[in-house]
Amino acid sequence: AVVDTFVAAGAACYLPLFGPAGAGTPVGVAVTGNINLSDEAAAAAYYADLPPLWASVHLAGGFLARPITQTSRAELNRQLDMNLVTSFLCCREAVRAMRKSGGGRIVNVAARVVEQPMGGSIAYSVSKAGVAALTRSLAIEVRGDGILVNAILPSIIDTPVNRAAMPNADFPQWPKPEELAQVILWLASPENRLTSGALVPVYGGA
Q1: Among 79, 121, 147, 198, which residue's CB has the most CB atoms within a 10 Å radius?
Q2: Considering the chain, what percentage of its residues have pLDDT values greater than 90?
Q3: If DSSP codes are grouped into helix, strand and coil, which group holds residue 119?
Q4: Is the pLDDT of residue 47 over 90?
Q5: What confidence tier does 157 reach under pLDDT thresholds 50, 70, 90?
Q6: CA-to-CA dists, residue 184 to 29, 32, 172, 188, angstroms
């Protein structure tokens, strides 16, 4: 949904996928498969091959619903890798690129649990809190470089996977991917001239 929204707005998009690229790439999107953005060398090499960069939107991530006594160290590490490490490495490489081109926009994806804590998903919550701290700290660090850094805080997103996992939920209250994409688009756009360091709530009615 985010890529489609950016393409519709006229952006040229570069999309790294964890799995194979496959076929059917939309016009305006350059897809590269088999990129592990939690791998430092892989993330650095991917960004190094990109043309001058205006915006970097960090969508890689994952969820784990597990209470603390059932959460292994390996599961904690995996949540940190998927959510925090991918955001950190992409932010770092984006800053390097944007300093060369004179500025830009960075958008991370944290989660509502950052401001409205809940039990039962401790590793996920910790990793997303790290994304929020990264966003706020980086916004201050790069404010003199013309780089604005923000994050959105979605609740449960209305996707087929989430509907299947929670069949009795109130789906109309969940934020839609297309709605979140519009917020991300504005934060990443030249029209955003002031907002940086913000954690933007995008809960819908959830």
Answers
A1: 79
A2: 85
A3: coil
A4: yes
A5: confident
A6: 17, 22, 21, 6
What single-letter DSSP state applies at residue 176? P
Lookup: tokens for 163: 């509907």
Instruction: State pLDDT tens for residues 7-33.
Output: 999 999 999 999 998 867 778 899 999
Handedness of CA 53, 197, 194, 28 (dihedral sign): positive
SS3 (DSSP) at 106: strand
Q: What is the DSSP letter of 34?
A: S
Long-range contacts formed by 170-173: CB under 8 A, 24+ apart:
170/205, 170/206, 172/205, 173/204, 173/205, 173/206
CA torsion sign for 201, 205, 57, 43 is positive
Confidence of residue 158 (pLDDT cuts 50, 70, 90): confident
Tell me the torsion sign for CA atoms 16, 97, 93, 139: negative
HSE, side-chain direction, 13 A CA sphere, residue 145: 21
> What average pLDDT is seen over the chain?
95
> What is the rounded distance in angstroms from the CA atom of residue 148 to the CA atom of residue 193?
8
Instruction: Indicate the burial class of 189 (C-beta count within 10 angstroms; 0-12, 13-18, 19 or more).
Output: middle
- Contact in structure between 181 and 2 (CB atoms under 8 Å): yes
Predicted local distance difference test score (pLDDT) of residue 99: 98
Catalytic position from the list 14, 46, 124, 203: 124
Q: Is 124 assigned a catalytic role? A: yes
First and final C-alpha spacing in the chain:
20
